[in-house]
Amino acid sequence: MSQSMQTLSHDRRQLLKASALAAAGSLVTGGSLPVVQADQAVDDLPTGEGMSWNKAPCRFCGTGCHVQVGVEDGRVVAVAGDKAADVNKGLLCVKGYHVGGILYGKDRLTEPLLRQEDGSLKPIEWDEAIKIIAKRIFDSPETFAFYGSGQWTIPEGYAAQKFMKGGLSNNHIDPNARLCMASAVTGFLGTYGVDEPAGCYQDLDECDVLITWGNNPAEMHPVLFSRVTDRRSRGENVRIIDIGTRRTRTTDAANDYLEMDSHGDVPIALGIMHLLIENGTYDKSFVEKHCNFRAHPESGKTLFGEAISEDEFRKRIAEYTPERVSELSGLSVEQIRMLGDLFGDDDVKITSLWCMGMNQHTMGTAINTLVHGVHLLSGHFGKPGDSPTSLTGQPSACGTVREVGTLAHALPGGRIVANPEHRQQCEGFWNIPEGRINATPGYHTVKMFDQFTIPTDEGGDITTMFVQVTNPGQTLPNLNKLFNDKKNLADKFLIVSDVYPTPTTELADLILPAAMWVEKNGIYGNSERRTQQWFKMVDPPGDARDDTWMTIAIAHKLFEMGHEGMKDKDGEFIFAVKDESGEEVPIWEFDRYYDTNVDKHLFEEYRQFTTMKHKNLAPYDEYVKARGLRWPVVEQEDGSWRETKFRFSGFDDPFVAEGEEFDFYHSSTKDGRAQIWFHDYEPPPEMPDDEYPMWLCTGRVLEHWHTGSMTRRLAPLNRAMPTGYVEMNMEDAKAANIRQGEKVIVESRRGSCELPVWIDGRGRPPRGTIFVPFFDETKLINNVTLDEHCPISKQPDYKKCAARVKKLSEAES
Amino acid sequence: MTFDSPVEQCTEAVETLRAMPEVDLGQVRDNKLAIVVDTVSKTQDRNVWDAVQQLPNVTDLAIAMVAFDEDKDENP
Predict the structure, then answer these.
(1) pTM of the model
(2) Cβ–Cβ contact A26 with B under 8 A
(3) Mapping DSSP to helix (H, G, I), strand (E, B) and coil, where does residue A556 land?
(4) Are A270 and A363 in contact (CB under 8 A)?
(5) Which of A67, A137, A307, A702 has the smallest C-beta neighbourhood within 10 Å, fewest atoms?
(6) Contacts of A401 (CB under 8 A, 6+ apart)
(7) Among this protein's residues, is A100 annotated catalytic?
(8) Cβ–Cβ of B67/A716 closer than 8 Å?
(9) Does pLDDT of A810 surpass 80?
(10) Shortest CA gap A483–chain B (Å)
């Protein structure tokens, strides 16, 4: 070991001890969670010979914490919270602290692997891999589908989007964000006419009351939650109201815990609006000036619905009395009245926070618009701390999926394929022939995998699928129907680019080894509209390569094969990059890929798309200098670039007309107003019954991110949370004679999963309910979950289905 | 660590903890005390855990963070 490494090891041990003490201290003083204070500024960090530090956003959740990455001898050897970052101010959670280690799991994929007839995998050269993919696409471009991710960087997603919609005239591209954020998107669109939160993380610093709607930020967004609990340690009063179906670590910090029945959030929101109207405590002036009322037409549900009068709204909302809401939601009448009184109080600032609980819901769009409606009706909107704010689960769900529009119906910058004017604009920016972009939306995620796993001769018209940067073999709902059926279909071809073997690569016909995080350049967009850039710092292992390169290399192979779609109007390659002398740089050759900054070229091209929906971005170089900038970012008279914290509010948003207090300038009713929706409560698609008597809810844990394919390679995190489990209520366990740690079978009408029981574990589910985290690939809970989805967002409901728990011995007998 | 009474009243347990070389004491609030345990082996880790759990007045131990000095790769 070198001297510098010894020093580093000692420093690291001390840093770990300090971190652990801070984490334990946070539990003691704040009732909060392990958030780790990186108490060294960049200048103080160890700098052994040849060691350098550079910024990057964390690879995990949508918070967008910045870390300082320490590199020595071509290897990431340390990370620290970045004190210069506004998002996390030097803090990291336990995952972020270990983010550097995700590069070094010993089973990294390092060479392309092709499945042989006997099922084995044979290493092949990249050239051959690219040829195989290009030939399959060339032979049948319309049956090809591209499945991506909110973990795609902005350039990765943009390249995939352009390749499919601008090159292949094929809209079968969708991301895994369909499974996590789609209802938030439709909720924003249905309410404001444009996607993404108006507020930002500053709301957490300024609210008097924080309401978590089926949301557990203490574990899922710990750094953000610590911004709230830290305020208490500074003597500030902030009231936390946790509305949920089970007690969590967020509940531990909450002043009020309102335990609702599954699906209870919809009637709760309706009940609050009822009380605001009944008590006359809604914000009359705000509603008169800035809002319309809306509902679905009788003919069926649509994203934008139809106008209803205020009288009609009053008539419909009158049905949702506290007594009826109590029956539907499980809350007491007093609790509902408490929420009604709270929103009727002008003197407090209220921030609502949500994530998967509201989004993974068969009424996902409805509950999103209803919570926006509660804030609009009460006037708790548009002031710092007074805002509805959704969180994202993936690092670029906003940037790559929502902004770049890597969805089956979308085009970059808020455009949609069904709109001829939007298609024309896109074709102009891409310099491709008019009419190239297909007007028919492609398959959304559930439909895409359904079509892929249905035999071709039975109408399954997706035959080749390319999966990048995600793990659908673990995350799709109802896996037996939507993924596992692929196994026996010889003519279906699955291509998977990933960094480690996963349940998805198990069924892949061709596996491509990918570069990850700081092994490549990247740009993410986080939950608060913040765009963050980083540079490549180390080389990927073996022959692993960038996902953007893969897309460009396939496109160029098709170009060489004469595919017309890979040419622009001038006959040039659609991804052509020229150097200063006008010579094309062969970026499809990997050893020339970093001759230029491909990310920068793609980002600057993409920037053109960002002004239509006022999501303006600054030039790439501005993001190099910053720890992210929140859009819209507009140029000032002095040439500097100014970010926007609060959209639609005259005091901060540069696009609100001078003198206006608020302006919903993308209103779907074209009158500058937001929409307050009414939705009738509908029961869940599947309810517990005699055969399957329990409600099953799935979700995440602090230590692991997404499917655990990265965090389970990290020894500290894996040892701290080594296995998936089922949380059970003590009384339910007693009644079934199930003991702590005993293995059981959780099963539904769709499949089963073997798990150890954690009675009254970290989360404490009430009687009749169980909770299972989905991070453990050895225990695929999504064999059990339901693929029913919201009719507008198409996002499946992972939060409730009917299940039963059997002792393993009983199941075997 | 959670005690059955305010930490300042649990003098015997706190003194014992203070005497343990593997243990550092951190913040105190009401019945709760933050500690860090730094050991050289899993066996020693287990011994400390058992000893701490058996101290008078201790009602609960919750783990806030686990870290390993030898950050070896570990596949699930």
Answers:
(1) 0.90
(2) yes
(3) helix
(4) no
(5) A307
(6) A150, A152, A157, A175, A177, A181, A407
(7) no
(8) yes
(9) no
(10) 23
